Amino acid sequence: QKEVEQNSGPLSVPEGAIASLNCTYSDRGSQSFFWYRQYSGKSPELIMSIYSNGDKEDGRFTAQLNKASQYVSLLIRDSQPSDSATYLCAVKSNFGNEKLTFGTGTRLTIIP
Amino acid sequence: DAGVTQSPTHLIKTRGQQVTLRCSPISGHKSVSWYQQVLGQGPQFIFQYYEKEERGRGNFPDRFSARQFPNYSSELNVNALLLGDSALYLCASSRTSGEGDTQYFGPGTRLTVL
């Protein structure tokens, strides 16, 4: 079992619709959860961080965390063509160590 | 404020050579982490340094080494390069080393081994 699993996609969503990205993780000791966006040929860019169960909203983005189910998701409302990218889920487990464990990423395409 | 910077941007080496990659963290950040990202995969953790001490090491061979300088900049060294070392090498910095701290990535160094 992979430590962090994401559906690799590609996921195609019409412009203006809601894009839903999912991630599961295996380490119950995980404390911090991050979503990064990566455009082709570029480095990852932080979108959201979440540490507690529930929802966290930032503009058009909402991160959801359920530690009991070991599940993290990212919702993108009013999807725009500029949202087309690969979305990486990252999990940090150990206090005092900055190691991020990444999933393979979900490739999202917004269709105009 | 300047973000994380890395040099060089691109690098081409041949098998068996050695390479040094450099990273300068965001001002005020004391932690630097290195990741390797091969095409189609998520980044893989190589090292973390905080206050010039190694705080974490990923599952990479001893050919990979790193260090952090008093100004918190860092170098990643890879010896005896293999074709499989071709990847995007990412440096990330964070303010401290602990729970809840966020890592910000530099633009990366694209290494091609021929």
Describe this protein's structure.
The complex is a heterodimer of chains A (112) and B (114). Helices cover 0% and strands 54% of the residues of chain A. Chain A has 112 residues and is an all-beta fold. In chain A, strands 2, 4, 5, 9, 10 and 11 form a six-stranded mixed β-sheet that branches. In chain A, a hairpin with a 6-residue loop joins strand 4 and strand 5. In chain B, the strands form two sheets. In chain B, strands 2, 4, 5, 6, 9, 10 and 11 form a seven-stranded mixed β-sheet that branches. Chain B is globular and about 40 Å long. The interface between A and B is medium-sized, with 27 and 30 residues.
Provide a count of the helices of chain B: 0
Order of SSEs of chain A: EEEEEEEEEEE
CA-based shape of chain B: globular
Q: Could you name the ranges of chain A where pLDDT drops below 50 across 5 or more consecutive residues?
A: none
What is the C-alpha radius of gyration of chain B, as a whole number of Å? Answer: 13 Å
**Which bin fits the share of residues in helices of chain B?**
under 10%
Question: Helical content of chain A, roughly?
Answer: under 10%
Number of strands of chain B: 11
Kindly name the structural category of chain B: mainly beta
Oligomer: heterodimer
Note the total helix count of chain A: 0
Largest sheet of chain B: 7 strands, mixed
**End-to-end distance of chain A:** 36 Å
How would you sum up the global shape of chain A? globular
Low-confidence stretches of chain B: none
Mean pLDDT of chain B: 94
Strand content of chain A: over 45%
Return the average pLDDT of chain A rounded to an integer: 93
Extended strand count of chain A: 11
Can you write the helix and strand succession of chain B as a string? EEEEEEEEEEE
